[in-house]
Every structure is written in structure tokens, then in C-alpha cells.
């Protein structure tokens, strides 16, 4: 035999051995893992596929063409099994198709290599083309199933916008949610579905407030929604620098830096917005006749002149008030204000963030009211010591570890009420030492009398919360249409996906709230509530997870997720925390609805709600084991301040309790970073305000910035991504929203749910837009600040859009 033929045969043999070794290796992994899964009571598919792959690989290593046909049979088994499990759900089919197709291509190419006299190249190439055509069909299926499920918009329910706030949206955007009713609705109608495609950037302003070093490793997450009042735009940067801009050009007018040290950054350097207050009766040209008020990361309220940016001398001390007074020992970063205050009847009402998961004796969640002109403390509400009306008695401090309000309150000027979405007691996942008052007010909406600081009513959405299901979103105030006339009401979304409608005067639900039996297991079964409240008005109806809902890009990672699922404790909604094994929390602590809240068109009677759809994979870790594993200590102590390796709450010490907590946010695989649950991971829907029925629903967010190992796929497929930040809806029938992880801001047709226009932001859009008008021209602004938890690029750009002249 000529030497050239010998070399050719050797090369063919080596190629076949290489492909065979790849198949055999994958097969062994599947077979071993498949046996484990069968032992756990799971699907036998992975064991059968593993055996097929291993046999095919061994035959190819031996140079036998039969290995090709064994793999083809295994591939067909995978396809048939996938169709039986997932039907035409394209996402469900991917683990059964994508990885196997990748292996099918080199395997088919072995035919002309091993038997060149019998097989021509066109045969395997034709087969590969046919398989790729099947993939195209699957892709078309994905596109089809991700179209909005459209319904009909309801008839108009109002001719005017009912809003109990003094300052309302329109030409201006004078409060974080448009007004203190938090409807996030603009009555401007210049931009419509017909012309929104012509929207262009009007200007971009960079705050200059960026972290030192690599931005992708920072803890910055600028989330500001600017205010527009009169001829000025007001905003705050990630570390509380106050800025005033020309709303037409974006040119700066003034800038004030309150000098917040980086040591006070809690989990994220974030400032969601500021508040505007005009002193009644003050001459317009006097200092601080109108003022901008913000809360800072180091726990201060700052007031500056709205015209000049200079501190208001009549407010506190040199324009600042320290809200930490009366809290006792507060380590830097443990108490911070990340949300704008709410001002009702001249009283600044503020809560604050208490750093999650650190220690049971964390600082108090006390709610405080301050005079908007002088900064004097009007009242304080400490739920454990309600008899105190101001600062605690000498040598005393506000009760530690109580639920806090880290998010945004809404307010009714006429009723004199502020509505507080309350969080949980310090350390979210263990409840053994909570007081009766904490159990009564945690994870509740509390209506507080703004004059006295005393509660008028409360509505609790979770009993004895050990899932971090704190209320993250503002309640939205509306006049609710009913057969007996309009009812002063509020619409309250939750992380669990329930939306409640309450009479805002009394807290009485306008739709029945059902008490359903939930599990009473875990480490504190005697403390778990036997029932939890479920809304009959509207719910996202997160399905009961099953083994088939576990996902991956290949059979191997799907198998790993299925093994994890089978090994974990999961009893449906409100599965209690466990220490002997992982437990599945679904939905996870990011929602449902988080701080972005909802938007309501009160004229058309439509709620717009974006949401998350991801589980967490958690475990309580006994104290001794946590110390052995090197869990971080609480903030301010040795080893303190580290929030863990995988994101918010990944490894939290929960000092002062028997357990630390290990959280896998979104339930990710450590190797690829992909999520274990089948997509979508986020969506957006329109809801009929009158009935709570869904009008349309769709996955929200493309896969362009997501992929395995953190590598962006750049695929425009609507996978439905995690999203943080809210929407605004306009009289023109357009919804504006960024929020998703793909760095896009979108205009969505309110009627159909279809995307009409989008633009790529310079960083992540984890903020809520604002809409305003100047000289008859409508503008849209959005902060592209990004967020490290959402893994979007960090930025400092405020971007404005308008129709071209």
C-alpha cells in the first residue's frame, strides 16, 4: 500500500477515534448521572441516552460504521422523547435537540470517512441540511409561541385622570411615579403607535459618577427616575450627587455633591430618585422656596434650592438631617436610603434599607416623618414601641431588627395617608425570635396617618414571611370603577405574583382574598402559618414545578438540574426553609413584581405589569457548618461586608440565629451560569383594571446579552429575561419600558402588546422612565445605569428621546 494511503487511513482512524471518544465521554456522564436520577425517581431517558452514546462512541473508536447508526438511533430517541415531554414548546425541546444536533454533525461525517467506497459526501451533508431545517422549524416555533396572547382593550372608564396628589404628571413629571399616586401614567399623546418608530435620541447626559476600577465588578446600579418640574430636570447619581439639567438640551444647570463615602454603599450604590417640594406662600425668588430633597446612602435627608442647588440653611443642620438618630449603633452600609421620600401635607415620610441577611440585631426599620421646610422630626413609628412619638427616651433606642420600608411609599393628600410597602424582619429566612408586632406588620401594606405617624390600617400579604417576599413595589392609587360608583382604591402587586385591590380608606379588599392551606414543614414547622392569602382578582399563577420544567442547553446540564430538583425539598408555593437539604423557592425573591411596580392607564382602565419568573435554590446552613465553610461575618465585623460569590444574599451570615442562609438566585448551574428552569424568565402583561383578567401576555427581553459562561449570544429571540425597573404608559397608547437584561428600551403597543420601536442603551436600563413636555414637544428619558446583580453593564448615561422636528 502506498505511503500516502497509509497516512490517509491513519488520519481517518484518528478522526473516528476522536469523535468516538467525545461520544463515549458524554455517554458515560449521562449514563452515570442517569442511574442516579432513576434512583431518585426521575426520568430514565438520560440513562438510556447515555448507554446509546457510550456504545456509539466505543464502536467509532474501533472504526466501525455501526457506531454512526447507533448514534442516529439515540438522536431519534432524544427527539421523540423531547416531543413527548415538551410537545411544540420550543424551549422545552432545546435540551433534546441542540446538543444532540451538535454531536450529530461530526458523527454523520464519519460515514464517508469510514466507508468512502459506499458513502459519498453528499449523503451526510444532505442529512445534516435536513436536520438544520428542523432546527429552523424549531426556531420558527419559538418565534410563534413568543407572540403576545392578545385580547381586547376595555372600553374607556374615565374622561379625566383621578389622582389625589397635589402635583400631577402632564407637562411635568413631578414625582417618582409621575405623582404620589404612582400611576406612572402620562396624559401626553403626541407619541403614538403610528409615529413612535420615528423616535430619535434628543440628547445624552453623563453624570460622571462611575466606580473606580472595572465597572463590571462594581456595586453601582444607578436607578434614578428624573423629575421634571417647570423648566428643569432633577436627578441623583448612584452615590447621591444631585444634578439639575435643561430638559430640552440636557445641559447641566447645577450640581451638588453631598460627599457620601464609599464605605456606606450597602449592597448597591443606588438612588432611585428625588422629591420636589414648594413651600406654600413663599415668594418664588427667595432661597429654597422650592427645594429638592433626597435620601442618601449614609442615612441623611438632604435639601437643596431647586434653582441653585445650594443647601437649604433652614433645613436641619446646613441642609441635612441624620435619620439614624435614635437607632443606636449603626455600622456603615447597614442603614441607607435608596428610594425617594414621599411628601404629603408638608411631611417628608421616609423609610430606609437595612442590609439584608446580616444579623438579627440589625438597626431598626423605624418609619419617620420630617417637616419639609425645617427638617424637624414630626413623628416616628416604631412598631414595637408605638407609644414613642419622636426620639426614643434617653439611653433607649428604636427596636432593632424590625421590618423596614426600603422601597417607595405612595400618598393621598386628601386623606392624609401614606401607604408603606413593608419589608421583613432582619434575617429573612428564620422567624424564631420575632415579636408579635413584627409578625403583625412584616410584609404588609401599612396606611399611616401623616399627621400623627400612627397606623390607620394594615393589609398583610404573607404570614410569618421566611421567603424574603417583602413588598418591593409602590401601591398605585386609582378611583376603582364599580357598579356603585368610583371607589378610592389602591392596586398592590406582590413578589408572589398576586395583585390585590383595596379600599385605600380602610384597607378592605374589593375582591375576595382566599386563605389556602400551605406546607408546615422545614426547621420551624410550628411557626409556619397553616394558610397564606391568595388574590382572587389577579395572579401570575406560577405553575407547580415538575421535573420536566428543569432545563439546560444540553441533556447533561438538564440532567444535572433534574437531579438537583429531585434531591431538593419542594412542596409548591411557600415551601418552608430546610437545613438538611436544599429547598426550592418559587417564585424567588425577585418576584413577581419588584420595586419597578406597575403602571395604570386610568382612562382606558389597563394595568401594565412586568414580572420575573424564576425560582431560587436555597438552604439554611447550621451555624457550625457555616463557620467551617467560611461564611462572611455581618457588615462591620471581621470578614464582614462580603455578600457572597453569586449575587444578592448568596451567602448571608444571619448572625444571632441558628442558621446562615445559602441562596442560589435564579437557580443557576455553577459551570455554565444558565438557569435550571425552562424559559421564559420574565414577562410583561396588560390587565383589565375592572376585572383583573389578562388582556395580553408575552415574554419580555431577548437573549442578545445572555448565554452560557456569561458570553452574550446576540440572539434576538424573546427568551423572556429577568427584569428590574418599571414601565410608563401614555395617553398616546404607548408603553415605554427598559428593565430587561438586553440593554434595550422599548415602545410597546398598549392595545396588542407588540414592540413598535426599540433602541440600544449605552448600559443596562434598570430604571423606570419619565415622560414630559417642553414647548409642545414630548420627551422620554431613561437612566442607563446598569446593575451588577442583573449582570448588565454599569453606566452613567441619562438618555432622552423625542420625535424629530
TrEMBL record:
Cofactor(s) the protein requires to work: pyrroloquinoline quinone
Domain spans labelled Pyrrolo-quinoline quinone repeat: 173-779
SMART domains from the UniProt entry: PQQ (SM00564)
Region (Disordered): 621-655
Pfam families reported in the protein's UniProt record: PQQ
UniProt entry keywords in alphabetical sequence: Membrane, Oxidoreductase, Transmembrane, Transmembrane helix
GO MF annotation: an example: quinoprotein glucose dehydrogenase activity
Coiled-coil stretches: none
Membrane-spanning ranges: 14-39, 45-61, 68-84, 90-111, 123-142
GO cellular component annotations of the record: membrane
PANTHER family per UniProt: QUINOPROTEIN ALCOHOL DEHYDROGENASE (CYTOCHROME C), QUINOPROTEIN GLUCOSE DEHYDROGENASE
Family: Belongs to the bacterial PQQ dehydrogenase family.
Protein name: Glucose dehydrogenase
Organism of origin: Sphingomonas turrisvirgatae
Amino acid at each position: 500500500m502506498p505511503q500516502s494511503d497509509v497516512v490517509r487511513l491513519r488520519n481517518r482512524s484518528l478522526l473516528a477515534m476522536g469523535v468516538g471518544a467525545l461520544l463515549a465521554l458524554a455517554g458515560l456522564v449521562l449514563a452515570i448521572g442517569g442511574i442516579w436520577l432513576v434512583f431518585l425517581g426521575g426520568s430514565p431517558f438520560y440513562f438510556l441516552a447515555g448507554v446509546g452514546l457510550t456504545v456509539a462512541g466505543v464502536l467509532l473508536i474501533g472504526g466501525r460504521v455501526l457506531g454512526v447508526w447507533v448514534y442516529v438511533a439515540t438522536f431519534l430517541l432524544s427527539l421523540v422523547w423531547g416531543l413527548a415531554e415538551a410537545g411544540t414548546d420550543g424551549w422545552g425541546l432545546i435540551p433534546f435537540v441542540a446538543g444532540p444536533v451538535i454531536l450529530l454533525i461530526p458523527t454523520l461525517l464519519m460515514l464517508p470517512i469510514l466507508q468512502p467506497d459506499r458513502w459519498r459526501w453528499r449523503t451526510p451533508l444532505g442529512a445534516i441540511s435536513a436536520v438544520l431545517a428542523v432546527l429552523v422549524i424549531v426556531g420558527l416555533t419559538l418565534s410563534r409561541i413568543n407572540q403576545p396572547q392578545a385580547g381586547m382593550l376595555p372600553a374607556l372608564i374615565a374622561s379625566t385622570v383621578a389622582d389625589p396628589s397635589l402635583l400631577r404628571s402632564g407637562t411635568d413629571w413631578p414625582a417618582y411615579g409621575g405623582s404620589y399616586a404612582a400611576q406612572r401614567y402620562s396624559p401626553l399623546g403626541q407619541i403614538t403607535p403610528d409615529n413612535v418608530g420615528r423616535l430619535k435620541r434628543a440628547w445624552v447626559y453623563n453624570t460622571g459618577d462611575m466606580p473606580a476600577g472595572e465597572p463590571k465588578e462594581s456595586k453601582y446600579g444607578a436607578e434614578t427616575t428624573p423629575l421634571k418640574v417647570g423648566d428643569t430636570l432633577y436627578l441623583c447619581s448612584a452615590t447621591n450627587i444631585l444634578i439639575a439639567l435643561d430638559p430640552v438640551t440636557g445641559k447641566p444647570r447645577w450640581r451638588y455633591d453631598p460627599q457620601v463615602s464609599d464605605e456606606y454603599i450597602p449592597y448597591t450604590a443606588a438612588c432611585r430618585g428625588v422629591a420636589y417640594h414648594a413651600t406654600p406662600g413663599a415668594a418664588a425668588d427667595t432661597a429654597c422656596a422650592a427645594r429638592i430633597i433626597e435620601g442618601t446612602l449614609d442615612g441623611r435627608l438632604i435639601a437643596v434650592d431647586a434653582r441653585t442647588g445650594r443647601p437649604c440653611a433652614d433645613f436641619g443642620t446646613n441642609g441635612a438631617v441624620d435619620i439614624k438618630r435614635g437607632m443606636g449603633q449603626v455600622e456603615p452600609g447597614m442603614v441607607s436610603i435608596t428610594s425617594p421620600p414621599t411628601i404629603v401635607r408638608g411631611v417628608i415620610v421616609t423609610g430606609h434599607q437595612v442590609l439584608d441577611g446580616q444579623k438579627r440585631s440589625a438597626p431598626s426599620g423605624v418609619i419617620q416623618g420630617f417637616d419639609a421646610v425645617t427638617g424637624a422630626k414630626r413623628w416616628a413609628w416604631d412598631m414595637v414601641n408605638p407609644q414613642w412619638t419622636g426620639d426614643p427616651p434617653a439611653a433607649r433606642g428604636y427596636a432593632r431588627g424590625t421590618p423596614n420600608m426600603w422601597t417607595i411609599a405612595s400618598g393621598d393628600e386628601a386623606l392624609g395617608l401614606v401607604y408603606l410597602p413593608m419589608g421583613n424582619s432582619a434575617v429573612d429566612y428564620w422567624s424564631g425570635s420575632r415579636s408579635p408586632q413584627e409578625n403583625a406588620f412584616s410584609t404588609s401594606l401599612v396606611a399611616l396617618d401623616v399627621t400623627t405617624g400612627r397606623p390607620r390600617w394594615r393589609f398583610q400579604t404573607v404570614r410569618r414571611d421566611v421567603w424574603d417576599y417583602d413588598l418591593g413595589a409602590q401601591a398605585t392609587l386609582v378611583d376603582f370603577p364599580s357598579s356603585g360608583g368610583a371607589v378610592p382604591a389602591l392596586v398592590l402587586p406582590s413578589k408572589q405574583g398576586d395583585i390585590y385591590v383595596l379600599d385605600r380608606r380602610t384597607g378592605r379588599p374589593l375582591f375576595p382574598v382566599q386563605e389556602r392551606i400551605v406546607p408546615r414543614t422545614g426547621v420551624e414547622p410550628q411557626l409556619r402559618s397553616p394558610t397564606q392569602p391568595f388574590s382572587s382578582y389577579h395572579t401570575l399563577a406560577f405553575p407547580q414545578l415538575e421535573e420536566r420544567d428543569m432545563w439546560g442547553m444540553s441533556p447533561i446540564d438538564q440532567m444535572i438540574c433534574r437531579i438537583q430538583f429531585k434531591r431538593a425539598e419542594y412542596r409548591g408555593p411557600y415551601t418552608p426553609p430546610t437545613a438538611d437539604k436544599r429547598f426550592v423557592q418559587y417564585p424567588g425573591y425577585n418576584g413577581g413584581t419588584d420595586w419597578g411596580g406597575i403602571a395604570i392607564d386610568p382612562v382606558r382602565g389597563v394595568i401594565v405589569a412586568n414580572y420575573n419568573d424564576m425560582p431560587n435554590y436555597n438552604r439554611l446552613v447550621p451555624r457550625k457548618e457555616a463557620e467551617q465553610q467560611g461564611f462572611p461575618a455581618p457588615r462591620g465585623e471581621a470578614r464582614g461586608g462580603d455578600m457572597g460569590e453569586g449575587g444578592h444574599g448568596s451567602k448571608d451570615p444571619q448572625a444571632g440565629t441558628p442558621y446562615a442562609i445559602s441562596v442560589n438566585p435564579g437557580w443557576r448551574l455553577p459551570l455554565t451560569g444558565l438557569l435550571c428552569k425552562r424559559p421564559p424568565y420574565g414577562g410583561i402583561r396588560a390587565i383589565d383594571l375592572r376585572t383583573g383578567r389578562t388582556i395580553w401576555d408575552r415574554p419580555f427581553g431577548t437573549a442578545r446579552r445572555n448565554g452560557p459562561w456569561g458570553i452574550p449570544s446576540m440572539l434576538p429571540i424573546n427568551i423572556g429575561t429577568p427584569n428590574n425597573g418599571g414601565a410608563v404608559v401614555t395617553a398616546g397608547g404607548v408603553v415605554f419600558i427598559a428593565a430587561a437584561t438586553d440593554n434595550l428600551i422599548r415602545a410597546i403597543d398598549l392595545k396588542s402588546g407588540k414592540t413598535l420601536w426599540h433602541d440600544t442603551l449605552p448600559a443596562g436600563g434598570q430604571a423606570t422612565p419619565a415622560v414630559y413636555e417642553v414647548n409642545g414637544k414630548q420627551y422620554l428619558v431613561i437612566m442607563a445605569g446598569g446593575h451588577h446583580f442583573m449582570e448588565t453593564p454599569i453606566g452613567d448615561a441619562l438618555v432622552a428621546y423625542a420625535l424629530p422636528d
